[in-house]
Design brief:
Shape: globular
Order of helices and strands: HHHHHHHHEHHEH
Number of domains: 1
Distance between the termini: 68 Å
CATH architecture: Orthogonal Bundle
Strand order of the largest sheet: 1-2
Largest sheet: 2 strands, parallel
CATH class: Mainly Alpha
Helix content: 55-70%
C-alpha cells in the first residue's frame, strides 16, 4: 500500500513553479528584466508610485545622482548598504559629516566609492536643510513643478518615453541654483519617473492603471 503522504513533496514544487511562472508572465515596461526578482519587484512595487514624504524624496534624489554613469540595478542592489552607511539618509547627520567621515565612506564596498558623489551627498543634505528652512516642505517644492499631481502619459512603447522634459529641466535648473549636485535634467527626470511625478509605465504594463489611480492633487 502506498504511503498517502509520499506524493505531497512532489506537489509543493509544482505550485511554486506555477506561481513563479505567473509572476514572470506579467506584462511589464520594456526596461525590466523579469528574471531578476529584485528588479521586477522594484518595478512592480516602487517605480512610478507617487511619493510625498520629504525624506523619502531626498533619499531617492540622492540615489538617482549616485546612479550617474551606472545601471540603476547597481544602486538598487546597494540601497540597503547606502542607508546604513549614510545614517538612514538623515539630512541633519549627513550635513555634519567631516572629511574623516568621507574617507571612511570611501572605504565602504557597499556604496559607489566615488569622491565627487559622496561629497555631493553631503552638499545636498546641506542644501536640503536650507530649502526646508526657507520653504517648509521639500515635497511641496518638488511637486509644484508638475502642478501638484502626477502627469499621466500614455506611451505605447519604450522608445516613446523621453529622457528629459521641460518640467525636469526647470526642476534641475532650480535645484542647481539652490546648491544641489548631480541633478542634471536627465537624472531629475529619472527621479520624477521613479517617485510618480510622471506615470511613464507603458500602457500595456500591468502597473499602468494601478499607478494612474494613485494620482492625486497635492
Amino acid at each position: 500500500m502506498k504511503n498517502p503522504d509520499s506524493q505531497k513533496p512532489a506537489r509543493k514544487p509544482a505550485k511554486k513553479t506555477a506561481k513563479k511562472a505567473t509572476k514572470q508572465s506579467l506584462t511589464r515596461c520594456g526596461w525590466v528584466n523579469a528574471d531578476n526578482e529584485m528588479y521586477a519587484a522594484y518595478h512592480d512595487e516602487d517605480w512610478g508610485v507617487p511619493e510625498y514624504d520629504d525624506q523619502a524624496l531626498f533619499e531617492k534624489l540622492l540615489l538617482d545622482g549616485a546612479q550617474a554613469g551606472l545601471s540603476w540595478l547597481v544602486i538598487l542592489q546597494k540601497r540597503e548598504t547606502y542607508r546604513k552607511a549614510f545614517d538612514g539618509f538623515d539630512p541633519q547627520k549627513m550635513a555634519r559629516y567631516t572629511p574623516r567621515k568621507v574617507e571612511t565612506l570611501l572605504k565602504d564596498p557597499g556604496i559607489v566609492r566615488n569622491r565627487l558623489k559622496v561629497n555631493a551627498f553631503i552638499t545636498n543634505a546641506q542644501a536640503y536643510l536650507k530649502l526646508r528652512e526657507e520653504l517648509g516642505s521639500f515635497s511641496d517644492y518638488l511637486w509644484d513643478f508638475v502642478g501638484g499631481a502626477p502627469i499621466q502619459n500614455r506611451w505605447k512603447t519604450l522608445k516613446q518615453v523621453p529622457v528629459k522634459t521641460p518640467e525636469a529641466e526647470a526642476m534641475s535648473k532650480d535645484l542647481k541654483k539652490r546648491g544641489f549636485k548631480f541633478v542634471g535634467p536627465t537624472i531629475v527626470y529619472a527621479f520624477m519617473q521613479a517617485v510618480g511625478m510622471v506615470n511613464d509605465h507603458t500602457i500595456d504594463c500591468h502597473c499602468y492603471e494601478r499607478v494612474k489611480k494613485m494620482g492625486r492633487r497635492k
